[in-house]
Amino acid sequence: MISPDSGRDIVARHFQDIFRTAATVFSRAPGRVEVLGNHTDYNEGVVLSAAIDREVWIAAGKSSSSECRAASTQFPEPVTVKEILPQKGTNAWINYPVGVYKVLKDRGFPVQPFTMAIHSTVPLGAGVSSSAALEVGTALALCSLYDIKIDPTELAKICQKAENSFVGMNCGLLDQFSSMFGKAGRLLFIDFRSLDHEAIPMAGSDITLAITLSGVAHALVAGEYNSRRHECFEAAKFFAVKDSTVKTLRDISMQQLLAAKSELNPQFFKRAMHVVGEDERVFSGMQLLKKGSIKEFGQLLYQSHESSMHNFENSCKELDILVDIAKSIDGVYGSRLTGGGFGGATLTMMRSDARENFEKVIKREYRKQTGRDTTVHFAKIADGASIIA
Ligand code: GLA
User: Fold this and answer.
1) Which CATH architecture group holds 4-200?
2) Would you say domain 207-379 falls under CATH 3.30.70.890?
3) Pocket-forming residues, ligand 1, beta carbon under 6 Å
4) Atom of ligand 1 nearest to the CA of 41
5) 175: CA distance to ligand 1 center in Å?
6) CA 96, CA 82: separation in Å to the nearest integer?
7) What 8-state DSSP symbol labels residue 73?
8) Whole-model pTM?
9) Where are the alpha helices (DSSP H) in the chain?
10) CA 14 / ligand 1 centre spacing (Å)
């Protein structure tokens, strides 16, 4: 694991090597895990998430030309962007920083072209939002570089806008918000209607989070994500026709939903069951955390996964197997798919002394049952993004 100083050192050296000058500003932004509250963010629901100790480090300076240039320690070649248009192929990673730059510019903030070096310890393709970390780190760095003051909530929204309109992924605000506002050792409760948030202490200090990679990356993720989103909006529309105060699924109680079962399109009903159920689980999870009832909290993770399997249908065989194996391991409190789904990773919450055995058993059993290898990342809950002196 990289300590804060060494992340800064690596990115400072990379900047110096590539641009032959010292960087002016430094920022860091963490990846995130969604602990509970799946696909609720764009339905104006609630989520419990956490920023993790896997981070993007950024060193930035003003560009002396009209071009933006960025270099990442993960890719051999720096990328230069003359016209602010989305890049394709191997250079596409630059769309995250350039997208943030473009949204800031379009909103009239006085940003100018930049040079940037990036170093990331956020695993790629693990569903822990390496892209949001890069956006949030970029946003902080550019604001510092050009002396722009923007409220952090607004800045998270600017990053989301960059992802929606420049990168082309129609995500909610969860990833950027969690990377911005995470608090070390606490879970972040976020209400995506009001954008109120609260850092909830984790009961007991011996809890470990594990991100376990299924190794399955579904090619159709964006398509599936958008179709689920659409189905949720359609379900809300069904209720809005009868009651104009209904704006999103956040306005529907489980009781109302169950009462409408025979009239609502069965597919939309299942999607709504997931989202409304997840909101309920987040509210009860928050109470359980506050009481220190971690075992009961863990049960909510299993229920969430069940709902993903049967209602939202955003799981897959491999994720189900990972959750089943986790359930059989001593010291595990709960496990579920985390993030968009359709592949990606599971999040498992366990007693810290269960780590070693968990890793051994899940690797062995997953291989036995799927023929695939898995990687386990143990994560600490970290602070959100910041400028580094
Ligand atoms: C992805 C999106 C988030 C959120 C989750 C599902 O991570 O980027 O906005 O919708 O899926 O909860």
Assistant:
1) 2-Layer Sandwich (3.30)
2) yes
3) 34, 38-39, 41-42, 171-172, 174-175, 339-340
4) 10
5) 7
6) 15
7) T
8) 0.96
9) 4-19, 95-106, 130-145, 152-162, 174-181, 221-242, 254-259, 266-291, 294-307, 317-327, 355-370
10) 31
Cβ atoms of 55 and 30 within 8 Å: the answer is yes
- By the 10 Å C-beta count (0-12 exposed, 13-18 middle, 19+ buried), 291 is classed as exposed
How far is Cα 332 from Cα 311, in angstroms, rounded to an integer? 24
Pocket perturbation via mutation, ligand 1, pick of 33, 34, 190, 221 by most ligand atoms within 8 A of CB: 34
DSSP of 278-309: HHHHHHHHHHHHHHT-HHHHHHHHHHHHHHII
Protein residue closest via CA to atom 9 of ligand 1: 172
Per-domain residue ranges for the chain?
4-200, 207-379
Q: Which atom of ligand 1 is nearest to the CA of 132?
A: 8
Helix axes 152-162, 95-106, angle to 10 degrees: 120
Q: Tell me the backbone φ, ψ of residue 291, rounded to 5 degrees.
A: -85, -10
In ligand 1, the atom with minimum distance to the C-alpha of 42 is: 10
Given a contact cutoff of 8 angstroms between Cβ atoms, the answer to whether 54 and 30 are in contact is yes
Say whether pLDDT at 221 is over 90. Answer: no
Longest dimension (CA), the chain: 67
Q: Which residues pair with 350 in a beta bridge?
A: 208, 332
Q: In this predicted structure, what is the pLDDT of residue 2?
A: 43
139/28 Cα distance (integer angstroms):
10
How many angstroms does the Cα of residue 61 sit away from the middle of ligand 1?
Answer: 31
Given the CA of residue 34, which atom of ligand 1 is nearest to it?
Answer: 12
122-178 per-position pLDDT tens digit:
988 788 999 999 999 999 999 999 999 999 999 999 999 999 999 999 999 999 999
- The residues carrying an active-site annotation are 175
CA-to-CA separations, 346 to 109, 263, 378, in angstroms, rounded: 39, 34, 12
Under 8 Å between Cβ of 259 and 299? no
- Please, what is the angle between helix 174-181 and helix 130-145, to 10°? 60
| Pair of tokens at residue 51 | 């920023």
Here the tokens at position 72 are 């990442």
Query: What is the CA(380)–ligand 1 centre distance, in A?
Result: 21
CA distance between the termini of the chain: 21
